Fold this sequence. Notes:
The complex is a heterodimer of chains A (206) and B (277).
Chain A: E1 13-18, E2 23-28, E3 41-45, E4 57-65, E5 70-73, E6 79-82, E7 87-92, E8 105-108, E9 111-115, E10 124-128, E11 133-139, E12 142-149, H1 156-163, E13 167-172, E14 175-176, E15 180-184, E16 188-195, E17 201-204
Parallel strand pairs in A: 3-6, 4-7, 12-15, 13-16
Antiparallel strand pairs in A: 1-7, 1-10, 2-3, 2-8, 4-5, 8-9, 10-16, 11-12, 11-17, 13-14
Chain B: E1 2-8, H1 9-21, E2 26-34, E3 37-48, E4 51-55, E5 61-80, E6 89-90, E7 96-99, E8 103-106, E9 110-111, E10 116-119, E11 122-139, E12 143-150, H2 162-179, H3 188-219, E13 230-236, E14 238-241, E15 254-266, E16 269-276
Antiparallel strand pairs in B: 1-16, 2-3, 3-5, 4-5, 5-10, 5-11, 6-9, 7-8, 11-12, 12-13, 14-15, 15-16
Amino acid sequence: xxxxxxxxxxxxxxxxxxxxxxxxxxxxxxxxxxxxxxxxxxxxxxxxxxxxxxxxxxxxxxxxxxxxxxxxxxxxxxxxxxxxxxxxxxxxxxxxxxxxxxxxxxxxxxxxxxxxxxxxxxxxxxxxxxxxxxxxxxxxxxxxxxxxxxxxxxxxxxxxxxxxxxxxxxxxxxxxxxxxxxxxxxxxxxxxxxxxxxxxxxxxxx
Amino acid sequence: xxxxxxxxxxxxxxxxxxxxxxxxxxxxxxxxxxxxxxxxxxxxxxxxxxxxxxxxxxxxxxxxxxxxxxxxxxxxxxxxxxxxxxxxxxxxxxxxxxxxxxxxxxxxxxxxxxxxxxxxxxxxxxxxxxxxxxxxxxxxxxxxxxxxxxxxxxxxxxxxxxxxxxxxxxxxxxxxxxxxxxxxxxxxxxxxxxxxxxxxxxxxxxxxxxxxxxxxxxxxxxxxxxxxxxxxxxxxxxxxxxxxxxxxxxxxxxxxxxxxxxxxxxxxxxxxxxxxx
Lengths: 206, 277
């Protein structure tokens, strides 16, 4: 079974944040709460805003530096300039042995702009389901389910077709648009926080 | 006083087989690494059977034909598929979707953490050898020993039948591991081929290493070691003789010392001649 927990991001996860306001932001991928001081990269939001919902995607790919024992971004991602309403997809490169989970912290000076452990309106969490199984997760006080079929239980053609359509789950507070999702291993699920604060998707056993 | 003792070929067979049965089991383990492949293999051998015949002087030989050497190899071969396969991220093509109030989002790909593959084949083997031994008499302290010393020999055995067993087990393992990964689709057969192309030449190296270990194990057996005599018979140096006319009073048993012993083959019998003092 995969680890499904938006508070502990693994290489199967992605965290998307939309930058609405201009400003200079820093981001980091701490492993522990008190690791959050260092800076992994910088994002400058400037220029004419993109129309809301029409922002451009920017990717920040993080890799675990075994020697430094911290996550680092690609050199090309160290400083990124985007427009207001553009969004950044934080995800991971090839996993290395011993790579811990982390979270994404985005700061504007001393103020927290976003924290992947506490998803808020218009944040997005994605998970690529690698292993089949019955996944149960908590969101607030509610509990939901995703059934992931073994890709070998269906034809290759069908599996390929399904993997092209991610499971889209819209979150409003503690409610989700798909309480019980049914997908196949190799397919992603996307939680779009339409409205909410301090939300996390917390996979549970059973 | 001289004494002579003769053992027929049938008797020598009995003595030889009894000596074989008393040999402790022998086993050895080794490990080797070839690039990304790691192997540990243990060899255990057992000796049995064979027909002993005696060659008259001046050869004075014990010939054993068809000595059966059987055994097994317990191997473990493993490797990280990631050391052979390239980085592949799935799905191969980005999956994108329109998210309201966000935009056109292309989801991150997942770069596969290639698993470890390993097999543990059990590989039995058996072959026969024909051996020739010279006789010698050794002073064992309180005993004389009639020992045999094997002439140099090269055991010939063929382990090539093990190759398809190892290859088919590895192919099944790799297929199982890779087919469990979603999203590989049409890449699967090519990836299996890449791994098997890398592994196939290793099988010859593995079999060579196992052959070497079988030879090393055989050398640990005294019977098959060209420099270690193997004892067939023992005689106490101090022998007690009881007069034939016992129980007449005054004729107590007499102790005599076997001061020397020779062993030779006459008329296909092992003849031991000793001198008492």
